[in-house]
Fold:
Amino acid sequence: MIKKCLFPAAGYGTRFLPATKAVPKEMLPILSKPLLQYGVEEALSADINNMAIVTGRGKRAIEDHFDNAFELEAQLSGTTKEDYLKEIKEIISKSTFTYVRQKQMLGLGNAILTGEPLIGDEPFAVLLADDLCDCDNDGVLAQIIKIHNKYQCSVVAIEEVPMNKTNQYGIISGNLIDNSNNTYLVTDMIEKPEEKDASTNMAIIGRYILTPDIFDILRNIKPDKNGEIQITNALIIQAKQGKVLAYKFKGKHLDCGSVKGYLEATNHFANKLGI
Structure:
């Protein structure tokens, strides 16, 4: 059973400067709700209520958002605006939030390793808030948790992307298992390959279920040429042991890591609400 979800949220958000100079990228809103709140809601819908957040300097707004605001609540009490806080208050009441700071920005793998004290020795979920997903039924985390519960190994969520965009994602190779059309036993991975070097167009998005042995692997792998620890390189080691599955999830992926993608996500949810 997956009880904890790790949210790497220490990055600088440089593609959104100057907005992210004072506002964490994870707190940028899609309509009236910050990106990270969408992620926490997805975790809650997958029956996870322990939220472990890896932060850094200038991220205090994240802690404040997922905390009671007594003065604001008192100000709105008894007014027509009181219901505006109902949603976030329910999230706070259902969840436990813990935090740790990433000392240096040394890649996603390092961010996950930084979160080890919050996770302990158990399988856990990882959710990247700027990979926003909209699903009609189960959220992406709930979908891949079902795969993990069946096979008891690490699972990554994947989608097919245009070949000319493989250099924006980790790309997997693998073989379908158990006569399925959406679950692959991963045989190899490569981080952001150019089109000519990509063996497939199956891209990892920001949803993972990881087994706790990933921490020892992350501790021992070498940084890449940019000095960063990549989770893809750690997962390759697990994959060589036959311990990683990839699941082609059902739903729409909205990449909010760029201004263009962020705008597309905003328009998607606005259209969905008829705004």
The chain is about 30% helix and 25% strand. The mean pLDDT is 94. The CA atoms of residues 44 and 95 lie 8 Å apart. The first strand starts at residue 4 and ends at 8.
